[in-house]
Model the fold of this input.
Amino acid sequence: MENVIIIGSGPAGYTAALYAARASLEPLVLEGEPSQDILPGGQLMTTTEVENYPGYPEGVTGPQMMEDFKKQCGRFGTRFEWKTVTKVDFSGSPLKVYVGDELFETKTVIIATGATAKYLGLESEEKYMNLGVSACATCDGALPRFRDKPLVVVGGGDTAMEEALFLTNFASRVHIIHRRDEFRASKIMADRAVAHEKIVPEWDSVVDEVLGDEATGVTGCRIKNVKTGETKELECTGYFAAIGHKPNTDLFGGILDMDETGYLVTKADSTYTKIDGVFAAGDVQDRIYRQAITAAGSGCMAAIDCQRWLEAREG
Ligand code: NDP
Done:
């Protein structure tokens, strides 16, 4: 039987593993399987430059940072398996975690399955991913390719407003493309965005295609007005999708409490879920901050909560 199984391999999962390993819990991390040449490691595996993680004064690529995280928790005896959990049974003790027919029994579980940014699903979005297409302005906005250039943000919620306002620090102009004639965002955020001199809302509009070429990446965006059918091309070097995130919580439906958008609910100021011995850390339970540093901090909290929970039971 395992002391602790950590499901997920981003900053939250690896940090939880680091702390659990140093507490002699010999954690097992079920990292997920590689997909399309991308190794497990969460959203950072598809991020180019990370400049806002303390401790990397020159910046670091997302995949390199995850390799460093993994190496650090491996030093203290963490075990890793490239396996994707397919089912959990938290109805009794021990807790049961399945990978297909393979059963893992464990005293505790730390869930760090993260969230996935939503994109429109256009082929051209995929084609220019990391070549101007991003779903995180805070992560990527300060990169040289976006400086003093027109940019596009898609969406009408608080994330879109926040991303657009943040991007005004670098961009010459930010177009917010929204499919309706009214933002979903809170009034204060929407008002602030609309009033900004660099922000241009493109109402009733959807993105038809992200334009570009392989050498330069994104060069523009073709949008269509849903009321008139008219199309136009916007020049831009960056395309930021801000149409929401989907927390990776399908496994826990009907088992753990979630908010109305599917984020796991943890008890106040802790990583405890409603089930004894099951903890949640990182983006899977964080709809607000969603940063590598906050996910790592929450992974640390989960390992400490887990260690104390075990100590209280086992002395
Ligand atoms: P939301 O779900 O609130 O907004 C998503 C936006 O994307 C909507 O405007 C929606 O349009 C649009 N959209 C969704 N799918 C598509 C599509 N296929 N094509 C075109 N447009 C699409 O997500 P957010 O990430 O903005 O916010 C999530 C939650 O987090 C909210 O509760 C928000 O308040 C909160 N948050 C709070 C912040 C803060 O307080 N500082 C910052 C960021 C988020 P439509 O409006 O037509 O449905």
In short: The radius of gyration is 21 Å.
